[in-house]
Amino acid sequence: MTALLTEKNGTAPRSTAPGSPPSAPRRRPGRERAFDDVPRWQIYLPLGLYLLFTLVPFYWMLLFAVRPAGSTSLVPWPMTGAHFSKVWNERSFAVFFQNSMIVGVATLVATTLVALAGGYALARFDFRIKGAFMLALLCSQFIPGALMLVPLFEIFRNLQMINSLGSVVIAETVFQLPLSIILISGFIKNVPVSLEEAAWVDGCSRFTAFRTVVLPLLRPGLIAIGSFAFVHSWNHFLFALMFLSEQDKQTIPVGLNTLIGADSVDLGALAAGGVIAAVPVVVVFAFIQKWLITGFSAGAVKG
């Protein structure tokens, strides 16, 4: 029998002494290579090229923002803050910044609260149209926001919400909810139901058990969907352009567009406005990077 198996597989049988543990299967040479055997330059060179490709545009923007007008030096020296003062005071960027912050924070809060309720329902309850609802959430991600501009404009016009920051908040929240609900529902599924059942036995209601037991475990997921909603609403240009026509209601992306003239572009002012727009996003990601990666990875799979 051993000879037949040897002829069929084309391998020689391994002899083992009586009572000795079976030997480990041989690995084909060159099939697997340990990470430590990889030369460091093969790791650092691609990472360095990618970092250079990513940081050069930011350096170029910062260079134009702090370089005096008319200068062609590649080193920002002497530096000036005239461009920042111009866009902040003369081009109403202080108002734009305030409006963008209101829209971003309101979208973050609304998206997080509604996604929590929807995600908990999908994770803990079974109902007849659950599969169809999940399919609708997934399919909604393929619909671009530009297709919904006309219906949304008509709705907000009938509700007398044109030139109101609330219209932008509602539109941004609606488009952020599908992905947020899917992520937070996957994260809630990783929390054992037995933890809530133990709280119910101790006399807690469903809401109290969720607030005291489940909600603290959802911190990475909440930070992930909240930061994603904030950054998207902060950077989104289309809704603010269509629903806000008054200058004192516009946001930073629309304000940056006003710096581009028909015949000329003030590169210094435009670069300074870009730096102002990028600072909050960079600060947010710098503080929540660990929670963001944990939240997206944990909400994407069911443990």
Structural summary, described in words:
Helix content is 67%, strand content 0%. With 303 residues, it is an all-alpha fold. The longest helix has 34 residues, at 267-300. The two termini are 44 Å apart.
Give the topology:
Layout: H1 2-9, H2 41-66, H3 82-90, H4 93-124, H5 130-140, H6 149-158, H7 165-189, H8 193-201, H9 206-214, H10 219-235, H11 238-243, H12 252-258, H13 267-300
Helix pairs in contact: 2-13, 3-13, 4-7, 4-10, 5-7, 7-10, 7-13, 8-9, 10-13, 12-13
List its salient traits.
mainly alpha
- Low-confidence spans: 1-13, 299-303
Largest sheet: none
The tally of beta strands, per DSSP, is 0
Mean pLDDT: 79
Approximately how much beta-strand content do the residues carry?
under 5%
From the spread of the alpha carbons, the general shape counts as globular
- Tell me the series of helices and strands, N- to C-terminal: HHHHHHHHHHHHH
- Please count the helical segments: 13
Structural class: mainly alpha
State the share of residues found in helices, binned by percent.
Answer: 55-70%
* Radius of gyration, whole Å: 28 Å
User: How far do the termini sit from each other?
Assistant: 44 Å
